[in-house]
Amino acid sequence: MSRRRNPALWAWLMAGFAFLYIPILSLVFFSFNQSKLVTVWGGFSTRWYSSLMRNEQILGAAWLSVRIAAISALLAVVLGTLVAVCLTRFGHFRGRALLSGLSTAPLVMPEVITGLSLLLLFVAMEQAFGWPAGRGTLTIIIAHTTFALAYVAVVVQSRLTGMDPSIEEAAMDLGARPAKVFFVITLPIIMPALVSGFLLAFTLSLDDLVISSFVSGPGATTLPMVIYSKVRLGLSPEINALATLMVVIVALGVVAAGLVLNQAEKTRQRDAKMADST
Question: How do residues 195-219 score in pLDDT, each as one tens digit?
């Protein structure tokens, strides 16, 4: 029996999507505006994309943000996976509740508090040990890894929780060591979760403004910080062009990741059917 569609529910749903995506579409539209006034259409032009390609400040900040996001996401995946494995595979050990609380605290901690606490930590460490020497790219990477690993741990932990442990037990019964079981059996199964966690951590790092503002220093200005400083002085059509490029890149990345994850899931299901048939 088919359910009857509620027109009011669909109307509210469409209104919600319109509220989210119409501003993005208008931003993309005005990025091709000839006029310097971002809200007045002066004809079609790509002049602001050409101007953006010659803006060394924005390009340098963008490259720095991508490097920081990639390194932070990679470290977050490694550390977050270790945390998830400890919480799901090691049973009830001493300090488990503390580890769980510390790994999930960044999820609910306000970014202002996180940024301020990390700044105080870096200042105290520099005074006590001389490291890190000042604030810069290294401190941003450490800060982004700190809050991103919490998201990765949640994603990987949910995947490990839903995984059948009998597969790992069978491999160990056949003589495989725990390390080999993890790299040969567990890692390929949770690979979609690792990819999802990496993309999530990369996006969070690339988008962060508050924490980066606390822990950055001279010569380490990320792209969100540059955009925020420019917007405060007045909206420029170059920012529309930059935002459009970011939307396109993110959309392509999401589509590519979806295809990879879909193919990995099909492969896993096919291997599971072959194993059940044998």
Answer: 889 989 998 999 899 999 999 988 8
Q: What angle do CA 206, 212, 217 make, to 5 degrees?
A: 125
Q: How many domains is the chain built from?
A: 1
36 part of a folded domain: no
Measured distance CA(127)–CA(104) in Å, rounded: 29
pTM, two decimal places: 0.83
Q: How far is CA 75 from the centre of its chain?
A: 12
56-107: per-residue pLDDT in tens? 888 899 999 999 999 999 999 999 999 999 998 887 888 888 888 888 888 8
Q: How many CB atoms lie within 10 A of CB 58?
A: 20
User: Rounded distance, CA 128 to CA 105, Å?
Assistant: 26
In a domain, 208, yes or no: yes
Full domain range(s) for residue 71:
61-233
